[in-house]
Amino acid sequence: MFVTRLISGIVLVILAIGTLYFGGEVTCLVTLMISLIGVFELMRVYKLHKKLPAVIAYLGTIGYYALLYFEKEEFIIPMFIGYLLVILAVYVLTYPTFRDHEVMAAFTSLFYVSVMLSYVYLLRERAHGGYLVILIFVCSWGSDTLAYCTGRLFGKHKMSPKLSPKKSIEGLIGGILGAGILGAIFGIIYNEHVKAVDNAWLIFGIIGAVGAIPAVIGDLAASAIKRNNDIKDYGKLIPGHGGILDRFDSMIFTAPIIFYLVKYFV
User: Fold this and answer.
1) Residue 32 is inside which H or E element, if any?
2) Rounded to 10 degrees, what is the CA torsion of 77, 78, 82, 87?
3) Is the peptide bond before 214 cis (omega within 30 degrees of 0)?
């Protein structure tokens, strides 16, 4: 199991590096595909993945990314309003085929998965985005790894015993501090090789630490959904890891937070 998980992790890192290196159409398309799979996995939780609300969610995701790619951001809010109207139209015109929580799940999936993950692409498209987007992985995957190691070594106080018994407060602190340290190291490298920024080590260290906090929330939120619906994993696409939402759950919340921290402080 460990070997399988390790190999899958290495492959994911290689794919991530390739995707982010090329940027533009490649990053947009890959992020779109990941979002579509994520929406599919979430809809499958509610047994909607082959039904009309899910189809609308898939089309909404494609439409949203098209607006981003062609830089038509002024149409995004109108699109969201239209998306809600279409979802509700299906709800009322097919009543009582779908329950209210199913319709809300279809509506939420666009935001919870597609919009949040799109910030990986949006950050990549900023100036020096090829470097800055690394912060998302530092705060999500990096903090998760460091939290796990710290928890195994020093964990005594359970953070959420009913939801995630293996996670500890010590692990949480270790993950946040670890992400802060990684962010500071990133800042030093960024300052010397990319662009000079005053107190870069401090700014990026704070961004790393702050970005690690929503990563934990994203991880626990995904776990809560699985527990409420009695499933172990969202899918089996990634051997040893599960589905897209099992691997990218923390990144869902980290990506937009990092985007705006970088936008306002760097």
Assistant:
1) helix 24-45
2) 0
3) no
Tokens matching residue 60: 């909404």
Report the distance separating Cα 196 and Cα 209, nearest Å: 21
Amino acid code (one letter) for 250? S
Tell me the C-alpha to C-alpha distance, in Å, between residue 266 and each of 10, 20, 198.
30, 20, 9
Tokens representing 196 are: 């000079």
pTM: 0.91
* 43-81 pLDDT tens trace: 999 999 999 999 999 999 999 999 999 999 999 999 999
Instruction: Classify the phi-psi angles of 184: left when phi > 0, otherwise alpha if psi is within -120 to 50, otherwise beta.
Output: alpha
Chain centroid to Cα 16, Å, comes to: 13
CA distance 227 to 231: 6
Confidence of residue 219 (pLDDT cuts 50, 70, 90): confident
pLDDT at 9 over 70: no
Contacts of 186 (CB under 8 A, 6+ apart): 134, 135, 138, 204, 208
Pair 94, 52: CB distance under 8 Å: yes
For residue 189, report the phi and psi dihedrals to the nearest 5 degrees: -65, -45
**Which one, of 140, 118, 131, lies nearest residue 30 by Cα?**
118
What is the rounded distance in angstroms from the CA atom of residue 226 to the CA atom of residue 234? 8
pLDDT tens digits along 137-147: 888 877 878 87
